[in-house]
Amino acid sequence: MTYTLSITSEDDEATRQALIEPLRTYNQAKAGPSSYLPLVVALRDEDGVVKGGAWGYTAYGWLFVQLLVVPEEARGTGFGRQLMAAAETEALARGCHDAWLDTHEFQAKGFYEKLGYVSFGVLPSYPPPFSRFFFRKALVAAATGAA
Questions:
Q1: S-S: 96 plus which of 14, 50, 80, 91, CB 3.0-4.6 Å?
Q2: Residue 85 burial by Cβ neighbours in a 10 Å radius (0-12, 13-18, 19+)
Q3: Strands 62-69 and 98-104: what pairing?
Q4: Pairing between strand 50-59 and 37-44?
Q5: In contact, 61 and 96? CB cutoff 8 Å
Q6: Are 101 and 135 in contact (CB under 8 A)?
Q7: Can you give the pLDDT of all 147 residues of the chain as single tens digits?
Q8: H/E element holding 68?
Q9: 21, 52 in Cβ contact below 8 A?
């Protein structure tokens, strides 16, 4: 069989799925079913319009928070904590034991630390001159009050 390479800046969903499917099959053969399930907590205004929220998924007993958005005018009012608490509570209900996420130095690093997240990695100069931080939190210990 002959293969060729192509490069594009188009984020074609069909191509993405063509890459994901064999990877998913391989991973499940090695690690078992992931129980992947999207997890979305929407923050809506009085008209029902989404203005923020948490976006991620649960898989292999972990919650991954990919996006957390609180409207600028609502920052510092507790909505970020509420969104994270709702996502973590749902993750626990789904059988998750831990959560992970990443954030930039200029975003919510201190916020996540206040919520009990601990850094497990740093990617320096992304984007320069800042760093990107990777965090995790044990949900089971947090839910039971254990350390």
A1: 91
A2: middle
A3: parallel
A4: antiparallel
A5: yes
A6: yes
A7: 999 999 999 999 999 999 999 999 999 999 999 999 999 999 999 999 999 999 999 999 999 999 999 999 999 999 999 999 999 999 999 999 999 999 999 999 999 999 999 999 999 999 999 999 999 999 986 666 655
A8: strand 62-69
A9: no
The token pair that represents 7 in the structure block: 């490069």
Strands 98-104 and 50-59: what pairing?
unpaired
Return d(Cα 11, Cα 18) in angstroms, integer: 12
- pTM of the entire predicted model: 0.89
Query: What is the spatial distance between Cα 15 and Cα 24, in angstroms, rounded to a whole number?
Result: 14
* Domains recognised in the chain with CATH numbers: 33-144 (3.40.630.30)
Cα-only R_g, the chain: 18
Q: Give the Å distances, CA to CA, from 89 to 18, 77, 119, 137.
A: 33, 20, 21, 13
Structure tokens at 146: 């254990």
From edge to edge, which strands make up the β-sheet containing 98-104? Answer: 37-44, 50-59, 62-69, 98-104, 132-138, 118-123
